Amino acid sequence: MAGTACVSGITLQEAHAILRAQTEPLAGETIPIRDAGFRVLAEPVIARIDSPRGRVAAMDGFAVSDAAVREGRRTFEVVGATYAGQPPHRSTGSKTAVRIMTGALMPQEADRVIPFELTDEGDGMLRVVDPVPEVTHVRAGGSDFSAGQILLGTGSRLDPGRLLVAAGSDQPDVRVHRRPRLRVITSGDELVPAGEAASGKTRIPDSLTGPVALLGQTWGAVAVGATRVADDLEAIGNVAGLARSDSDVLVLAGGASHGDRDLARPALEALGLDLIFSGVAIRPGRPAWYGRLGTTHVLGLPGNPSAAMAVARLFLAPLLCALEGRGFDAALAWRNLPLATPVPAANAMETLLYARRCGDCADVIAPQSSSGQRPLAAADMLVRRPAGGPALSAGTPVPVLEF
User: Fold this and answer.
1) Which is nearest to 159 in space by CA: 361, 342, 326?
2) What residues are paired with 338 via a beta bridge?
3) Phi first, then psi: what are they for 321, rounded to 5°?
4) Exposed/middle/buried for 337, CB within 10 Å: 0-12, 13-18, 19+?
5) R_g of the chain, CA atoms, integer Å
6) Torsion angles phi and psi, residue 332, rounded to 5
7) What is the pLDDT of residues 306-321, one digit of tens each?
8) Model pTM score
9) CA distance 272 to 293
10) What is the pLDDT of residues 219-250, one digit of tens each?
11) Which residues of 43-67 are buried (b: 16+ CB within 10 A; e: fewer)?
12) For the chain, which end, N or C, has fewer CB atoms within 10 Å of the first or last residue's CB respectively?
């Protein structure tokens, strides 16, 4: 990647196009099915068995001959019982019934289950006391899926439902994409661990390192390090240098602007950073930048909390989704919701506003500030406003992204 020309002042759409082109899913690894929850498939899941394994009861009841029922028979001799996991009971004939439980294999000559609640049993005899419905309550073998059938495609995320299908198809293990390893560095002489700022007048609690790492984990990353460092080229470079060997993504929060102590980018340039874009025409988050340090993706965030978290949601989340095999756009599911309250005209730059759900509407939180923190406690979405967009009244649909 060395020698890539850096672009500046690009739009959000252009920045996304660059990131999308830079990312490919990480290599696959084979893991036990018990450890595969929320992992992303690198190969399809193909059924190893039929489901059901044969004709089975779909209800608890009595297995009988359907022809006998249709001919009007209402009494049967009960000759046994069978349960799921057992071999099927011997053939029954038209005058006999087998007590059967859901999922148990049907006797060879039985092709209907009469639910318990429609019957009366006593003295070894079954009596049908209520009308029998048309449905037979029997599932055919392989009616759910059959051996050799593709059940889940590459890129599927194994949420509880998909994990159930994979396990139910008798997979001992699955091939999944490796989860991206994330390292987060926050720089600033003014920053101290939360709990230590009250001891002085000039210190500020570090409120970004942990939350950025947590956002990354929410989107599939494995956090390999989350470090706070001083505004020092050597200190930043020492920690950032670790990312070349242990991280797929390095995020630097703070030091993304052009002040005397904004040293994150210069520290990485000394390590060989290939800067690909610098500055995005959005508010908040204009100082954001992206590059590569060897094979490691490097994302620079502003130091202001609200701006940093907005940029992380817009860039870090889709980057991680792409590396994990879910696709870059899996994290960019914009949709329209009506505004709960009016919003003023947008300025000359594309703007992202923190908002919260209010019924089926988006309620923009006031006041909006790139350095504010309290609104993030209530925010669960971002509202996107185009540059120069007019004032909007309540009820106007706007694009929103779940935060």
Assistant:
1) 326
2) 397
3) -60, -40
4) buried
5) 30
6) -125, 50
7) 899 999 999 999 999 9
8) 0.87
9) 6
10) 999 999 998 898 888 889 888 888 888 999 99
11) eebebeebbbeebbbbbbbbbbbbe
12) N
